[in-house]
Design a protein that fits this description.
about 425 residues, mainly beta, four-stranded antiparallel β-sheet
């Protein structure tokens, strides 16, 4: 719903021609080996009466997104005088270049009552040209979304792939005193509680179009799988078979759901139709098998099995054939999540008294530890594969953290109180 509103609110500017590489994006490099530096100039008011707090918040959102992207070092800067409006004069480029910046985000805004108009532009300072621009029309409550949306445009201009900054993270929150499913912007703002059944709700997962979630709930005193749209409180029981109906995962085309069922005794991996019908058993082993995750093309499923004595990650074809062991290091590996690019799987390994997040290539090579502090579980990839969210315990409480896919830039994003665990990242 929010995406639809945003599309309706955005007016695209007619942009001047720019130089594109053969890959479809503009290549910007910093001198030597240093990282690109971006200045985010706080948007200027077009009206006599300004709203400096709103302008600064928009600038801070863009700077935060770009810093987390790892593409550049972004910072708020306001100290340079401007020759006029959004049209850049030669002297303006020189001022920012002397400040050591490679990229500049400029903006203007107008607030009339509750209506907000804002325009952003991204400049390549060294080549003295504008890379992209967008104008947004809406309400003042939309200002963070507008800033996130322009950060997505910046990534598109720099890499050829749009960012993930307008997406959301669903997670399990105990703020109400129960384990309920909540949702927040990817950076932790605008948290809303989705379920209110005063029970235990676990393991949310988004549908491929991002409009629905599935989760396991004990609200009828059995761990059953439910589906609900984000725009409605109606929760539909998808699988309420005897025993476990847990760790559901949507297939990439949305037609099937993989999950663990124990209706025949021990826990096995099945797939079911999105309405819960047509169960297909994929594993048949006396061991415990849980936590399926689909490859991006839907041809394979990774899962956890203790068939060798302790939990390890295995991969099989989507029809249950061709089972092979993936993880060979560590004695307790759980929570697999297949990357959206298809090349890696993130998982949690027991280390000492807690867990740490690892990634491993799907051929079993390059097993790399990403976290080292406290305890970290339940990794969830951003839809562009650039970031990973996870449940982290750093000191007293459990919170949702986000880091880059190489483990750098770890940042706590949940801010709601209580325990925040089991993140799931919304597709674009």
């Amino acid at each position: 719903m929010m995406r639809t509103l945003l599309i309706l609110l955005v007016l695209f500017l007619m942009l001047p021609a720019v130089s594109w590489s053969e890959n479809g994006y503009i290549e910007i490099t910093a001198p030597g080996n240093r990282q690109l530096r971006m200045a985010v100039d706080v948007p200027r008011s077009l009206e006599a009466a300004s709203s400096p707090e709103k302008a600064r918040e928009m600038g801070e959102v863009i700077a935060f997104d770009m810093n987390m992207s790892g593409l550049c070092l972004a910072e708020i800067k306001e100290q340079f005088n401007l020759s006029g409006a959004l049209l850049f004069a030669e002297a303006d480029f020189n001022s920012w270049l002397k400040g050591g910046y490679d990229l500049l985000v400029r903006g203007e805004y107008s607030v009339k009552g509750d209506d907000l108009t804002v325009e952003f532009r991204l400049f390549d300072l060294a080549n003295r040209k504008m890379m992209t621009a967008r104008r947004y029309l809406g309400k003042t409550k939309d200002l963070r979304r507008f800033a996130h949306s322009f950060a997505d445009e910046i990534l598109l201009a720099m890499t050829g792939e749009r960012g993930c900054f307008t997406t959301h993270i669903a997670f399990v929150s105990t703020r109400s005193g129960n384990k309920e499913i909540a949702i927040m912007d990817w950076d932790g703002h605008d948290t809303r509680q989705l379920t209110r059944n005063h029970s235990i709700n676990l393991n949310p997962d988004f549908s491929p179009n991002g409009r629905e979630i599935i989760f396991t709930s004990y609200k009828r005193h059995n761990p059953d799988l439910y589906r609900r749209p984000l725009s409605s409180p109606v929760e539909v029981a998808v699988s309420h078979r005897e025993g476990l109906n847990i760790t559901g995962a949507w297939s990439p085309d949305g037609s099937r759901i993989a999950l663990a069922l124990s209706k025949d005794g021990n826990s096995e991996i099945y797939t079911i139709a999105r309405d819960g019908s047509s169960p297909v058993r994929l594993t048949s082993h006396p061991a415990i098998e849980i936590s399926p995750t689909w490859s991006p093309n839907g041809s394979q499923i990774a899962f956890v099995s203790d068939r060798l004595g302790k939990p390890q990650i295995f991969i099989m074809n989507a029809d249950g054939t061709g089972v092979r062991r993936l993880t060979t290091n560590g004695g307790y590996n759980v929570n697999p999540r297949w990357s959206p690019k298809g090349d890696k799987i993130a998982y949690a390994r027991m280390e000492g008294g807690g867990f740490q997040i690892h990634t491993i290539n799907v051929n079993g090579s390059d097993d790399t530890q990403l976290t080292s502090s406290g305890s970290s579980e339940n990794p969830a990839w951003s839809p562009d594969g650039r970031l990973i969210a996870f449940s982290g315990r750093r000191g007293s409480g459990d919170e949702i953290y986000v880091m880059r896919a190489d483990g750098s830039g770890e940042t706590r994003v949940s801010k709601v109180g209580g325990r925040s665990t089991q993140p799931a990242w919304q597709p674009r």
